């Protein structure tokens, strides 16, 4: 897997809390949960062409 990019992300505290709870429910870190959500959005939007199959983490 290639090296991951770093990103500073500012979130509303309520959004962060909701993601944090969701991540805990799915046994993921907040970072992994955000990446999962973004990947799912890319797939749904038909923009996942450039994603490597080997990089698809499910948990």
Describe the protein.
This protein has 59 residues and is mainly α. It has a domain at 13-46. It has helices at residues 13-25, 30-44. Helix 1 (13-25) packs across helix 2. The longest helix has 15 residues, at 30-44. The protein is globular, with a radius of gyration of 12 Å. The two termini are 16 Å apart. The model has no long low-confidence stretch (mean pLDDT 88).
Low confidence ranges: none
Shape: globular
Provide the helix percentage.
40-55%
The number of helical runs is 2
Average pLDDT:
88
In total, how many beta strands? Answer: 0
Order of helices and strands: HH
- Report strand %: under 5%
Distance between the termini: 16 Å
Rg over CA atoms: 12 Å
Summarize the main sheet: none
| Classification by helices and strands | mainly alpha
SSE layout and pairing:
Elements: H1 13-25, H2 30-44
Helix pairs in contact: 1-2
Which key phrases capture this entry?
59 residues; mainly alpha; 0% strand; globular
Summarize the structure.
The chain has helices spanning 13-25, 30-44.
